[in-house]
Write a structure and sequence with these properties.
The chain is of the alpha/beta class. The protein is about 40% helix and about 20% strand. It is built from nine helices and 15 strands. The longest helix has 23 residues. It is globular and about 55 Å long. InterPro entries: Iontro_rcpt_C, Solute-binding_3/MltF_N.
Length: about 250
């Protein structure tokens, strides 16, 4: 090969390898809604902490990934992922068939169910008993999907808000008759409001939270999936779970 061409080829190969290494080692942006205690919330120092944050940090450490968590309203997390503003999402996102058409998920990292919050004196005993009553849900959440199917998507009684603290606040203030959301966060918020109680409707199916990436981002998905399996195997997952929920992840 001509020496000049050889030098150019070697230079191009080196540049390609350098670019690949840079892409591999670049900082990944993680979206999480920090209004979702104990999964993700801001502490007194304005740092984002919680179960989801500890899980993604443990996975990143195990896989050698550099990450930065950004507080993103739940209503905007999928848009941020679509636009390329973030690389992945961990924000108590329920895995379902509708979402799987547009995004890829890791295996579940948390087993969840829906839970209803009610005033202490309420006689409501199931979701069906909420017919004709005002229900607060987080917009675009699983609770939004369930209540929309049960009572109609355009029902004026379904009141949609941006975050769980807002739906609990609305319930505590008497603006709605019930609030509905994921069990972990609803139970956490109700425990801080002695005038409220929770209702577990046994008809609600078991759900799973997954880490979300763009459809087809197999390389990142594989790393996250492998990291999740590894922290489950080495006991890190169980320790994080007990830290935030004060019980073993297999306990019922």
């Amino acid at each position: 090969m001509n020496p000049i061409r050889r030098a150019l080829a070697l230079g191009l190969a080196a540049a390609t390898l350098a670019f690949g290494a840079q892409a591999q080692n670049r900082e990944l942006t993680v979206a999480s809604s920090a209004t979702y205690a104990p999964f993700a919330f801001e502490n007194k120092d304005k740092q984002i902490v919680g179960f989801d944050i500890d899980i993604i940090n443990a996975i990143a450490k195990q896989q050698g990934l550099k990450i930065k968590v950004v507080n993103t309203p739940f209503t905007g997390i999928f848009g941020a992922l679509n636009n390329g503003d973030v690389d992945l999402v961990i924000s108590g996102v329920t895995i379902n068939d509708k979402r799987k058409q547009s995004y890829d998920f890791t295996p579940p990292y948390f087993a969840a169910r829906q839970l209803i919050a009610l005033p202490k004196g309420s006689t409501v005993a199931s979701l069906k008993d909420l017919a004709g009553k005002k229900i607060a849900v987080v917009s675009a959440s699983t609770a939004d999907d369930i209540t929309s199917r049960e009572f109609g998507k355009t029902s004026p009684n379904i009141r949609r808000f941006e975050s769980t603290p807002l739906i609990i606040s609305e319930l505590a203030g008497g603006g709605v008759d019930a609030a509905m959301g994921d069990n972990g966060v609803i139970a956490y918020r109700v425990a801080q409001n002695p005038e409220l109680k929770t209702l577990d409707d046994k008809s609600f199916p078991e759900e799973g939270f997954g880490i979300v990436v763009k459809k087809g981002d197999k390389a990142l998905l594989d790393k996250l999936t492998a990291g999740l399996a590894a922290i489950r195997a080495d006991g890190s997952y169980a320790a994080i779970y007990k830290k935030w929920f004060n019980k073993d992840p297999n306990a019922r």
